Amino acid sequence: MKRIGIILCTMFALELLGLTALTSMNSEAEAGKKLSFRRHIWPTFRQYCVRCHKPRWKGRGKKRKKIKAAGGLNLKTWSIAYKNIVDQPSKQAQEGYNIVTTSEPALSYLYYKLVGNHKNPNVKGKGKRMPSKRRRLAAWRINRIVKWIQQGAKK
Question: What pLDDT tens digit does each residue of the chain (155 aa) get?
Fold first, then answer.
């Protein structure tokens, strides 16, 4: 019963944001097309996410230390990113939410982080909206990610 409530709330939120209708030019062109992570989703991740979500090195010489990626989520390359997000449990949301749950955008924590609705009572997430130090993603980019998840989150 709780999952049905979550799904209904998410569908309502999607409708409010206008993400269920394919309104942008990019979305109209993709209406009948299968989306892949590498070709359609990775460019957005590379542009908006990799800057913070990749391991870095700090210091010089013997004092050099490796610093973890933000939130412990490494998105350095497309193959590492895909492996680390698809059907992997979220460390920030309540149990039952994966970062990306194939074919279920309503149970995918990534969607909630992108729209900034991750702290709602159903999800009980932590942290900031993503991308945190940049403007919110355009609706067509979020719509593309949602459609990719609905299609089964293929590589």
Answer: 455 454 444 544 545 444 444 334 454 445 678 999 999 999 999 999 999 999 988 888 888 888 888 888 999 999 999 999 999 999 999 888 999 999 999 999 999 999 998 888 888 898 889 998 888 999 999 999 999 999 999 99
Nearest-10 crossing angle of helices 139-150, 2-17: 140
Cα separation, 93 vs 155, whole angstroms: 24
Cα 30-22-120 angle, rounded to 5 deg: 115
Burial of 12 (0-12, 13-18, 19+ CB in 10 A): exposed
Number of alpha carbons in the 13 Å side-chain half-sphere of residue 37: 19
DSSP single-letter state for residue 108: B
Predicted TM-score (pTM) of the model is: 0.76
Which residue type is seen at 17? L
Specify burial of residue 140 (Cβ count, 10 A radius: 0-12, 13-18, 19+): middle
Token pair 């940049």 is found at 134
For residue 81 the two structure tokens come to 């990113």
3-state secondary structure of 86: strand
